[in-house]
Design a protein that fits this description.
311 residues; DNA polymerase, domain 1; hpI Integrase, Chain A; two-stranded antiparallel ribbon; 15 helices; 2 strands; 59% helix; elongated
Length: 311
């Protein structure tokens, strides 16, 4: 049984029928090819004992329970596809138990640290040495304006980093308080834009228009890359540098941490969990429930502050 061809067919189905994003498809490919390389005869013809031995092997190699569970999930999806297509008469993953894993709380930032980070980005973007006195193509000036826009928009919207860096330029060309973003599974959702985020985007748009290689790009944050827009890795690197200059440990900051801060700060200040689910683009409320601890803290504070018998 040709495992490589079966994996390609599975990935084509995930793309065409389920609208899986490129990052998701790449993750599935890595996990399935790793399992196929490790199992004699390939993954497509594997028995339950082969898959169990593979899971034992990656556990012995030190993979975290979350990584083991992700790999098993990919393998389960693969065999469900083979069974549904009549390419296998059985599903060997049916008797396998998922690795036990804890549910770690998402890393986030305090409101004070988030404010310091954004203030630092605004300061650098407005520094006369980088702005008014700089040539239109000055790389430091452009980088400061771009980073300020990225940080403001990320904290205002809670976008996934892949959604953020790939934003169309039309988002900044309108002065709307909301815009539509296409997320996982090709689903659209409406996200808000603060006044500060709109101002930062307009400043970046004006500077970007003066760079010939950027002016005609359909993306808000263009770059000389295969995708045509800024890579997630470059933004993550620039964000860590900004954090260090703001006096925040760079190891504690990433684009995903700012997305978590957006959600946590909304809930801390009274937002509804369902509303946050919609803003984050989570298909299932169970995904958003990682923030339940924030609601619990808010309830405890509410009782302690307002109950007549509270100490």
């Amino acid at each position: 049984m040709n495992s490589a061809a079966r994996i390609e067919a599975f990935l084509e189905m995930m793309s065409a029928e389920r609208g899986a994003a490129e990052n998701t498809l790449s993750s599935y490919r890595r996990d399935l090819e790793d399992a196929s390389d490790a199992i004699d005869g390939g993954l497509a013809g594997a028995a339950a004992t082969d898959i169990r031995a593979y899971l034992d092997d990656i556990a012995a190699r030190g993979f975290a329970p979350t990584s083991q569970a992700r790999k098993l999930s990919a393998i389960r999806q693969f065999f469900k596809f083979l069974y549904a297509e009549g390419l296998r008469a059985d599903d060997p993953t049916g008797t396998l138990d998922s690795p036990k894993k804890g549910r770690p709380l998402p890393k986030t930032m305090s409101e004070a640290d988030t404010g310091r980070l954004i203030d630092r980005a605004a300061l650098e973007a407005g520094d006369p040495r980088l702005g008014n006195d700089a040539a239109p193509g000055d790389s430091d000036w452009l980088a400061a304006l771009r980073l300020h826009a990225l940080v403001e928009v990320l904290y205002a919207t809670g976008l996934r980093v892949s959604e953020l860096v790939g934003l169309p330029v039309t988002v900044a060309q309108r002065d709307d308080r909301f815009f539509m973003v296409r997320g996982k599974g090709d689903k659209e959702r409406m996200v808000p834009l603060s006044a500060k985020a709109r101002t930062a985007m307009r400043s970046w748009l004006a500077a970007r228009a003066k760079v010939p290689s950027f002016a005609d790009s359909p993306f808000l944050f263009p770059a000389a890359s295969d995708s045509g827009y800024l890579s997630r890795q470059v933004f993550a690197r620039d964000l860590k540098g900004l954090a260090a200059r703001a006096g925040i440990a760079s190891a504690k900051i990433s684009p995903h941490v700012l997305r978590h801060a957006f959600a946590s700060h909304l809930l801390q200040n009274g937002a509804d969990l369902r509303a946050v689910q919609q803003l984050l683009g989570h298909a299932d409320i169970s995904t958003t429930q990682i923030y339940t601890h924030v609601l619990e803290e808010r309830l405890v504070r509410l009782v302690n502050d307002h109950h007549p018998l509270a100490d």
